[in-house]
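dude i think i finally got it to work??
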Amino acid sequence: MSSTAKFLAKRQDRDKGIGTNKKAIPFHKQDYQSLKRQCLERRTLFCDWTFPAGSESLGYNKLGPYSPNAQGVEWKRPKELCANPQFIVDGADRTDICQGDLGDCWLLAAIASLTLNHNVLCRVVPPDQSFSDGYAGIFHFKFWQYGEWVDVVIDDRLPTRYGRLLFVRSAERSEFWSALLEKAYAKLHGSYEALTCGKVTEGFKDFTGGIAEDYELSKAPPHLFKIIQKALWLGSLLGCSIDTTSANEIEAMNNLNLVKGHAYSVTGAEEVHYRGRPVQLVRLRNPWGQKEWKGAWSDNSSEWNYVRLDEKAKLNYSAEDGEFWMAYSDFVRHFSRLEICNLTPDTLTSEEVRHWNYCQFDGNWIVGSTAGGCIKNRATFSSNPQFVIKLEDVDDDPYDGEDGCTLLVGLMQKYGRKEKRTGRSLNHIGFVIYKVPDEYKGRSNVHLGSDVLLYKHSVACSRGFFNQREISKRFKLPPGEYVIIPSTHDPNLKGSFILRVFTEKKAAASPLDVNITANIQKDRISDNNVDIRYKQLFMQFAGNDSELSVVELQQMLKNFVAKRTDIKSDGFSRETCHHIISLLDKDGNGKLGLVEFYTLWIKIQKYLEIFKKSDADKSGTMSSYEMRDALKYAGFQVNGEILQVIISRYANKHQAIYFDNFVGCLIHLEMRFKQFQFFNKNTGKIELDIQEWLCLTL
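look at this
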């Protein structure tokens, strides 16, 4: 199937809800119910050949086949490790996630936060799974991946050493949901080792489809505590960590029992009265399930003796479970960064929390058409994809006391962790936001060009361009219409991305792109209109039948371009000449008569003028980034998706378009528009039988 056909098929799937959490896409095309049914019928336990119980699933470097860390590993099913294994014991909670011999504390902190909301957890960990009823050695989990949910099937063979789980385990030794979840996530990314090193927010996003914020606590905004409270009120997941200055500091403990280079979950934020004065507190959890903070407001510290009894009764502060309270002032002093994952509306079903409003767009940076780079690349910047959002209503109860519309913008590039083992690096990505000029307000069928973007100041932007999986930022803007332009820093870097926007109030958003139209002038030429010079040129190449065949037309056009030094051409192809005749042949004999030839010649002169106008550097070629405007001068208006197809077909590897390809493109476009108009019954769609389809496409 061609890439275009795959794109159209995927768009149809999304229209049917495929890729949502309820209709997750089977990863590796493995359907959980079908595989389980087959195993039960055959009375066998499932063995997953796509993620085998062997060294290749462990890793490729520090956990590679010849690494000492991978020696002595045995893959065992839970029923080989204990007499009565359970999927979940007394509900999933934060004590079920204890780190093993894998540097994925960032992931475990995300899982721990996941357990705070049962409905969110069930979207990732389908609850109807067990080691008793219908057990077949097969389990499944759901993860959000770049805009769609996937359902990952695994067998329950887990890596062990000396009879104990090698990686994550539950404090309750007979409980296995967290170990199986970790395995499914490892399969999603190719190996367990692929999970080493990461940010808590990456796990948050893959478990919820949410959008993340990252705060450097040494530069904490003045209202961050209220932002934390509001985030928890909105059902968000929060994590934090302490930066390290060397590899030796990773998971090193300071004198207050805080672990550097380690991910914690933030599970609460409350204000209490201490000796009659209000004090802001935050609650954190160490995914190890132990090693708690020893400072002020730690478990059983003296500060609790001076808190009002009614406030103290609401807070659990004395269990040795890895969870502890600390003053917000100590939190920002000792921790380096805070990460917040805000959840999509479909994630939260509780009426007790508010919901963000959410929109998401897929996009591509295509070399030669939409990979324009940042604003410093003045000639190409406007070619980047554009998205418009209309903010109308200001926030309720603003955290900073000022009216405005809060929005979170996230730009994510795809497939980075999966390609980690190949050494591929991520692009440096960022975005800018412009206010829509008054003359374009209320429209989505435009594409802002250099004449607008190069002479307007942006109203907001990302913090910079970073080679991260996702960059995001919180903004507060006045009501109005805005255009968001995502880009790589340098031009001509290919990549796929999703752009996501969260707003506190409803906001209309859509891609900003032109409608597909054509202004095709009708040919009104007769024999009497043909100049004598063109009659002589025609007769020079026409055969004895006084008509131009495909071969004769090709020779005539070759002769035309050979005489010109101001344009470059590879010579008109046989295919292009066929398209020319198909478009202009009135009597259907497969050749061009005099009037039809003259019509072509007028078109070529018009296209030559446009081509030379677009050839800004007088190189004899046209840059592919100039194709959108050149098409517009010729009477065609196409959106970004169509433009990408055109560039991929008609530009060379240097993103240059020769004159013959330019003419071929315009002829082909006009022919396709006329065919569509012929079959269209004023519905905007066409319906063809097999004969009509083959006649059009062969």
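DSSP finds 19 helices and 25 strands in the chain.
im so relieved honestly
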